[in-house]
Write a structure and sequence with these properties.
Length: 746
């Protein structure tokens, strides 16, 4: 009879327990958002969104039914899917804390300005508790970024008229900002075409027009183009420019009139030069005037009329008959040295040329050749006259500045990258030579004179043997010092600026340590180097601060990052760094947690990691293994001694046979020492990753622990009734291992 009464009681209690669990974890239910009326305007709820028109209007509302009460501090977040309705990367539209606003007044939101599509969905999610609401149905949503009329024109040239052409023409949207970011609906004579980009190839007769594609919102704004009537022609009129009397013209007096051959009075004309429209040139003729600079080029004429194809003629090339070149053969800046004339010269393509040289704007008497020897300072050029060919003309050469220096400035510098006490080698070079006139003005004459000087490099004021080139290479710390160069040319003897050179030795500095782990306050670690420190100043550093400048090896008794810095010829030579860290016993890891459990008659292998050496001992201090693994075949107490370098870590281990009994469902806590507590197998007890939970018959949680110690109930637990039933769950992080009832009989 007892059993018959107990079964329904257990079932009722279990049902109550799980009902309580469900209630304690009840979800906040959020229905799909529904469009709501805009309280600022009359009318009903929206069924599609066409935002951006009417002064950028973009204000909409939704409501969502909510079942349950959110936690304190909750926020409702309205989210928008992508254009296909996917919420993998939702867009947050707005947040609302008021439940009444969400369910009644309506959440106000705006759509992003790049929203364009027919598959967008909305949902509301909460933050406390964290719940995703039901997704809405799909909506048409379009933000109309451009809502005014726009222009389409041939090749985007900005024109607005009709087009007649013997070849297909590309019509392009030419005045919509970021035109390529939109899709379009193109029509030809009212028929929708498949093209959707910002251009279309017109290859059939018809009237072309484009709309920005806003889906169901298309046409609700003025985002449409002008209409372009396109007629494709089957043949041209053969327009040509009559052969001119001459195409090689002599400036500045020559002119030549270009004339359309057999013009029709119904035609319109437009002249072009080098492919560019000539403003105002719209007659059947055009006069080329050589008094205008840049008259040379290719000239064309284009004809158009309602009854013909727009057509452009072949080009007529007009050239400058007097055109020739004059090239200066010497540098732009030259130095005239005492009793050493400098030769200036030019070359020219002129026919039968004559020459006249000028100094400071005045004629140099008798200087009528292509070259001139000078001994004075000044600014020189030559006028070259072409006396042959179709016409005569004169062209001046580029100027040459000649300097008779009072002295020279010699500038030396580092070739390439150089950093003191970082570079292990460098090259010094003469980088510039400036001629200084009597007024102190400098003229760069490096190109013409850098190879003419004789050089002698000096270090710390003394000549460097054999260093007589315009560069000097330094590769040793023995060569550190201050360098300059003496430069001699004729009667000039100049000294350069000075350059300091401080090279770092190319040797390396290494330190080693007896350990990198600091065990305890009595532990001593020694850091040393094989380098000879007897003749150099040095400093041992910890964490960048000097701690010792006298000992060639360093005794370490605290953690930190150590290095050695040696003064090598005024430069710091820095060693490698060694990090000394305090001992962390948790570095030694075992692949078991808690007791080592295995069935009697079998074995269990345990592996340690994180150390540099291992020793396993039994309770009698007998060495059982000296590898990282130990196989246990008997229960008992064991010791693992693991080393990390010179540090020793000890772990106490207990091996026990696996309990093969089942989890008990009856206990008798009457103080007789037998079955007083709920003892579960050691495969579940004392495990830090196993969770044991006990509930009473009303679903109230009495115990919730990790690593259950087989200690429930304790002596203070009261059981006011006979034969009370409790419920337990044994689980780990991923699954429930055991569950059932415990009957307490008193």
């Amino acid at each position: 009879m007892k059993t018959k009464r107990l079964i329904p009681q257990c079932l009722f209690a279990l049902a109550f327990l799980f009902f309580g669990l469900v209630q304690s974890n009840a979800q906040l239910l959020i229905d799909a958002p529904e469009p709501a009326p805009n309280p600022n305007f009359g009318g009903g709820a929206w069924n599609q969104i066409c935002a951006g028109d009417n002064g950028g209007f973009n204000q909409y509302f939704v409501t969502a039914d909510v079942t349950g009460t959110p936690d304190s501090g909750n926020e409702f977040i309205l989210e928008l899917s992508d254009a296909t309705g996917d919420f993998t990367n939702p867009i947050e539209l707005t947040r609302e804390t008021s439940l009444d606003v969400v369910t009644s007044t309506g959440i106000e939101f705006s759509i992003p300005t790049d929203t364009r599509g027919s598959g967008y969905k909305l949902r509301v999610r909460s933050t406390a508790p964290a719940r995703d609401g039901t997704e809405s149905m799909a909506f048409n949503m379009y933000y109309q970024g451009h809502v005014t009329s726009f222009n389409i024109s041939p090749n985007g040239d900005g024109t607005t008229g009709d087009v007649n052409s013997s070849v297909p023409v590309t019509l392009i949207v030419d005045n919509v900002p970021n035109a390529a970011s939109y899709q379009y609906q193109w029509y030809r004579s009212g028929t929708l075409l498949p093209e959707t980009g910002p251009s279309i190839l017109a290859d059939q007769d018809g009237i072309f027009q484009a709309y920005i594609d806003y889906g169901v919102c298309t046409g609700s704004s003025n985002a449409f183009s002008n209409s372009v009537s396109f007629d494709i022609c089957t043949g041209g009129s053969g327009v040509a420019i009559a052969t001119p009397s001459k195409t090689a013209l002599c400036p500045p007096s020559d002119t030549e009139t270009l004339q359309v051959d057999s013009p029709d009075p119904t035609w319109s004309f437009q002249w072009y030069k080098d492919g560019n429209m000539i403003a105002g040139a719209s007659a059947s003729s055009y006069t080329v005037d050589t008094s205008n600079a840049g008259f040379e080029g290719d000239y064309e004429v284009e004809i158009s009329a309602p009854t013909i194809c727009t057509e452009r003629s072949a080009a007529v090339t007009i050239t400058n008959a007097s055109g020739f070149t004059v090239t200066r053969d010497n540098p732009a800046n030259v130095v005239v040295l005492p009793s050493q004339p400098e030769t200036l010269s030019v070359s020219t393509s002129a026919i039968s040329p004559t020459y006249q040289w000028y100094r400071n704007g005045s004629i140099v008497s008798g200087a009528t050749n292509s070259s001139l020897d000078i001994t004075q300072e000044g600014t020189y050029y030559v006028s070259v006259t072409q006396n042959g060919g179709a016409c005569s003309s004169t062209l001046d050469s580029e100027t040459t500045v000649a300097v008779v220096p009072a002295s020279f400035e010699v500038v030396v510098g580092y070739q390439g990258t150089y950093t003191a006490c970082v570079s292990t080698s460098t090259v010094l070079e003469v980088q510039a030579i400036n001629a200084i006139d009597g007024g102190g003005n400098a003229t760069d004459v490096t190109a013409s004179l850098v190879d003419s000087f004789n050089y002698q490099w000096q270090r710390n004021g003394s000549n460097v043997g054999g260093a007589t080139a315009k560069t000097i290479s330094l590769t040793s710390t023995d060569e550190n010092g201050t360098y300059s160069v003496d430069a001699v040319l004729n009667t000039y003897n100049e000294s350069s600026n000075s350059l300091p050179v401080q090279l770092l030795t190319n040797e390396t500095l290494a330190i080693t340590s007896t350990s990198t782990v600091y065990c305890n306050s009595s532990d001593i670690i020694t850091i040393s180097t094989t380098a000879d420190l007897s003749s150099d100043a040095f400093s041992w550093e910890r964490d960048g601060a000097s701690i010792n400048t006298t000992d060639t090896s360093l005794t370490v008794n605290e953690a930190g990052t150590y290095r050695l810095v040696v003064d090598k010829n005024g430069c710091d030579l820095i060693s490698n760094e060694i990090a000394i860290t305090p001992l962390d016993p948790n570095l030694i890891q075992l692949d078991v947690d808690g007791e080592i459990v295995f069935p009697e008659g079998s074995s269990k292998t345990v592996t340690a990691s994180g150390g540099t050496a291992y020793q396993w001992f039994d309770a009698n201090n007998n060495l059982m293994s000296n590898s990282s693994s130990m196989t246990f075949t008997e229960e008992g107490e064991f010791i693992l001694v693991a080393n990390i370098d010179n540090c020793e870590i000890t772990r106490q281990l207990t091996a026990v046979y696996l309990d093969l009994f089942n989890i008990p469902n009856v206990i008798t806590p009457n103080g007789d020492g037998a079955n007083d507590q709920w003892i579960i197998p050691n495969s579940y007890s004392n495990k830090s990753d196993v969770n044991v939970i006990i509930y009473d018959d009303k679903g109230v949680e009495l115990l919730n622990v990790m690593g259950y110690q087989n200690n429930w109930p304790d002596s203070s637990t009261a059981f006011p009734q006979q034969n009370m039933v409790f419920y337990y769950i044994v689980k780990n992080a991923s699954e429930t291992l055991k569950q059932g009832t415990i009957t307490v009989i008193r």
